[in-house]
């Protein structure tokens, strides 16, 4: 019934690829230049370069047709149940926003539009996330610990080797690859986990990153392939809520300490500054004033301002707050979000409709 819609959304998401397209092609070199300039007191603006923007006109036409097909006014009696039609409709509308953002990458209009896609949530969630960020920034970081290179092939405790052991031990059909030009330390994609080269990490950092990427991102994606509903693969609206769950999983490790919490708090404040219209230099100065090193300030500001102000980092603490709220009132988010790319609101909607997580598994997955 929804197979054609599943295929259309999957193709649209791959073509749009918003986060990947927001990554500057000169990210590492430009960040190095910005850091050197900042250290000499020259607060210059970034000169990011981006890959040519694709023509997504056909994608937009397809998504608009999906929206029209699933809208309440045009649903037929033989269509999908209302709860699923609503969820598919919300994701199609969200992808339309992402397509419009791709067209605006690198322009002045981008940041304002990105705020419509990656939101802080309601007033209560926004306030509590900001308070959490402020509290974490004020924590005293632990003493320095021995570190190992993220991409060291010879060091058994390196991130790349630890990830490979975890993947092998659980027989997961994914590979681990090293990449140089990344903003994140690690990132999960389809069939692969990327590790940024050249970083010095504590052993406890390695532990939490493995949990974040494998349990927070890889396992739900693999589970979605066995589901009876294709939306779990392409993701519901706000499926980036998985970052909040991943942080909750991190919280069970020793790596979720004051150093990590301080980083998350600063990333949140930086993202808020982007939403408030701050320039890259203003965000960097804000981070330095909060106690960040010059290197950390430049890195976080660059990450939040990529694309022209994506500021996706705003979802981490807001989704953690919403995740904890839902768990506190008995919504089985852990069981839902382990089965695919499911946003918190979507999981709560399905829960309220009496849909159980195990209903979505195919017979082969039993």
What topology does this entry show?
Layout: H1 3-16, H2 18-21, H3 27-39, H4 57-70, H5 82-104, H6 110-117, H7 123-138, E1 147-149, H8 159-169, E2 175-179, E3 186-189, E4 192-196, E5 200-202, H9 203-224, H10 231-234, H11 242-250, H12 258-275, H13 280-289, H14 294-305, H15 314-328, H16 333-337, H17 344-352
Parallel strand pairs: 2-4
Antiparallel strand pairs: 1-5, 3-4
Helix pairs in contact: 1-4, 1-5, 3-14, 4-5, 5-6, 7-12, 7-15, 8-9, 9-11, 11-15, 12-13, 12-14, 12-15, 13-14
Quick overview:
By secondary structure, the protein is mostly helical. It is built from 17 helices and five strands.
Radius of gyration: 21 Å
Q: Structural class of the helices, strands and pairings?
A: mainly alpha
Q: What is the total domain count?
A: 1
Q: Percent of residues in helical segments?
A: 55-70%
| H/E element sequence | HHHHHHHEHEEEEHHHHHHHHH
Tally of extended strands? 5
| Low-confidence runs of at least 5 consecutive residues | none
